[in-house]
Write a structure and sequence with these properties.
The protein is mainly beta. Helix content is about 15%, strand content about 40%. Strands 20, 24, 26, 27, 28, 30, 32 and 33 form an eight-stranded antiparallel beta sheet that branches. A hairpin with a 4-residue loop joins β14 and β15 (about 180-185). The longest helix has 23 residues, at about 245-270.
Length: about 425
Amino acid sequence: MKKIVLLPILLLIVIFIFLSTEKLDFYKPKIEFTEKPNKIGENTNIILYLKSEKSGLSNINIWIFQNNNKIEVYRENLNGNKEKKLIIPFNPRKAGLIEGKALLHIEVSNTSLIKKTNTVEIQTNIDYTPPVISIISSTQNIINGGTGFVFIKSSESLKNVYIKVEDFKFKCLNLKDKYVCPFSLPYFYKEAKPIVLEAYDLAGNKSLQSISYTFKKVKYSESVLNIDDNFIKTKVRPLSDKDIQDNIDLFRYVNVEIRKKNEETIHKVANECKNLYPMFEGKFEYLENSAKLGGFADYRKYRYNGKIIEGADAYHKGFDFASIKNAEIKASNNGKIVFTGFLGLYGNTVIIDHGLCVYSIYSHLSEIGIKNGDLVKKGQYIGKTGTTGLAVGDHLHFGILVNGIEVNPIEWFDLNWLNTRFYNYYKGGN
């Protein structure tokens, strides 16, 4: 009698164990997109994220239908993977599709004994026509180390727009009725370089336009700075992450390698461009009642015991302002604090995001008076000048970056320059 009662219980246990294994999965695999392919051009990548967390993924099949034609786009055995990201290149022109509507059909199955298949259909549009770009304005005279702006309109929505200057790529930002492209010619340029606008529509079609301008070469200063044993002991050695005994080798390592790491951090912060719309108003302000000691793009050599240290040269990528000791530093313009902390050669540092990929940096502070995430107004207290980092004497290192590249701050202190290059077109429309 006990055996008869136990059999159903054992059977239920076996069924429960069986159902809880990966061999039986009642859930369809998931199909996710970062962006649905509602438009497909000649060089479109279809990007899919597939998941079947219990049983695993079996197969994927993708077709596209247009005018009673069924064309295979992709198929693969997914070998039981629980997750899979697929980047599928597809050229509809080579597949014989014409411009117009089409239906993308995606099927993904799992490895369960009772196979489950998820089907997604997307109404898409085959598009081979590049966007038509109209240039509203572009900065005509640009210096090496200077900032330029290009304002454009497009015949359709754009997925990405860039200004390319050789290997540098600057993001353009969508400001509702127009796009604005802030960019820079790096300070070390000696001659004009081609500037090209690249615009990609939602289907990936590309338009290229050359941007004409007049290059105004600025010859920046060169200087030799003397350093001594006390400077190396008190300023240089504490910044090194290596135990280098030779003073010359130590200085060369800190001034080149540590500086490079510090600037990589700055460039990373100033290249995020999360805040699209400009928060800044009017001109940018510099340290009150101060004298300018070091200029932008000054090329500096260093002399120790009467000899130049070879391989330790560096560009100075901002202005040095000196006032009284521990002078109050105020935000140069409206913005959001995106970095506070100690940054090697730069010492205690604050970085402000002013929107439109424009950032300001304040370094060598003795005191930081704000924190990450704070919104600040022009003229608001943010800290005090000091000698932290690789600084000789109490001062403020101040810089401006556009799209992660250091630019000459002198332009941003000039309201007429800002009006004629930016504000008149940003505020005035066409």
